[in-house]
Every structure is written in C-alpha cells, then in structure tokens.
Amino acid sequence: MGGAFVRGLARTDGYHVTAIDLDEDALADVEPFAAETTTDIAAARDADAVVIAVKPDAVPHVLDDLDLRAGQTLVTLAAGVSRGFVDARTDADVVRVMPNLAAASRDMAAAVTEEGVTDDVRDILDALGEYVEVSEDLMDTATAVNGSGPAFAFYLIEAVKDAGVDGGLDPEQAEVLAAQTFKGAAETVLRDDRSVDELIDAVCSPNGTTIEGMEVLWDSDADAAVRAAVDAAEKRSRELAGDYDE
C-alpha cells in the first residue's frame, strides 16, 4: 500500500514525498515516484504527515522506532490495528485509513476514521480517489468491502473474461472488454443518481440479451457467495484487531 500511495501522489502536484524503508529493494521500486528515498526512519520527524504502510504485526516495532512530535499527523494503513493502539504510542495526531491498491492510479476507495481526520488528510485521500468517513467500529467492515474488494472484483472480471474467451474472443481482447466494462459500470454507479437496481433495469431491455443473463444470476447463489467472501474478510479483520485493541 505504501508503494501505491507514493505512485498515486506522484501523479499530483503539491506533495513532496519521502519514502522510508529499511528494504533497499523496496525503495528502488518507488524511487522513480518519490522526491527522496532513505533508510533513515528519523527523516519522518521533519514531515508534516507520516504514513505507516506495513503489515499489522510490524506496526508496534515501527512505532517503537518512530519519534514523532506533537502537531505531526500520523496516518496508519494497517488492517486491524485500532487508532487507539497507535495513539497511545505516539505524540502525533493519529488518523486510521483503510485504502486499496487503486491509490496507485488515483482510483482508490478508502475509509477513514471520523475521529482524528483533518482537512489535510482529506486532501490526500481526495487526490487519490474516493473516500468515506466512518466510525472506528466500522473499519473492519470497510476493510472487507474496499480493502479486500479489489480481489473480489478481479475474480469476477476474470470470470467474465473467461466466458468471452470460451465464446471465441482473443484473451487480450476479452480482458480489455471485461475490465473496461467493470470500470465503466463502477463510474456509472458513482456518478448516476439512480440506484444499482434502477441501473440494472435500465440495461435490461424486455426480451433482450442482458435480461437473459440476469435471470441466470438472480436464480443463482452468486450474491450470497459474494456476501460470504466479504463476511470472511471482515471476520479476519476483527481477529487481527483483537491483537491491537487499546
């Protein structure tokens, strides 16, 4: 996620991004997109905003080494790590965010805790995509919906692509058509005032092709399977959170 943030912010103006990592290979990956790279964690003390983008079990170790001052903003991206856990271990102002990898292309969906969020953090999130502000107790749900959601979407795109290939399309052609169709559908949901059900109705002409396909989906357990996938991801997020409550 850290790399996705760096790549996304590189597409905007107004941010001087310093990438900090002990792994020099990781720094090499983001070097073309960062103003500076360093292995010195002390460099974080000079920043207005610091983003922790590590696996949950690494958060306590990073916080032990991170000497931030009052007035700085610390944004955490780690799944299951509560804002309170981090807040108790730093003098900085803490904001918890659950983004996704589409930050790299500035198409991110993110959830941010209502408590602690600032206009500066809102500006960063707005620059990288869409975001919603939620209470801390809904962050596990958000983790499942938008944090894990891209994998679920990739799975569905692959299924539509494979159906196209089975019908005779070239795999590359089928992938472009499937992926762009999902992208366009998502943009329509975000920009159109109609509900998802109303949009489905708008696409489904009586006795047309789409309604035939939708009848198959309506008669299947596809929606239940998707809900089960989200529920499983949410459960795992809550399990992780149990180790980092404060």
Automatic annotation (TrEMBL):
Keyword list, A-Z: Amino-acid biosynthesis, Cytoplasm, NADP, Oxidoreductase, Proline biosynthesis
Q: Which GO terms describe its molecular function?
A: pyrroline-5-carboxylate reductase activity
The biological pathway it contributes to is: Amino-acid biosynthesis; L-proline biosynthesis; L-proline from L-glutamate 5-semialdehyde: step 1/1
- EC id: 1.5.1.2
User: Which protein are we looking at?
Assistant: Pyrroline-5-carboxylate reductase
> What residue stretches are annotated with the Pyrroline-5-carboxylate reductase catalytic N-terminal domain?
1-80
Annotated gene: proC
Q: Which GO terms describe its biological process?
A: L-proline biosynthetic process
**What SUPFAM superfamilies does the entry give?**
6-phosphogluconate dehydrogenase C-terminal domain-like, NAD(P)-binding Rossmann-fold domains
Family membership, please give it. Belongs to the pyrroline-5-carboxylate reductase family.
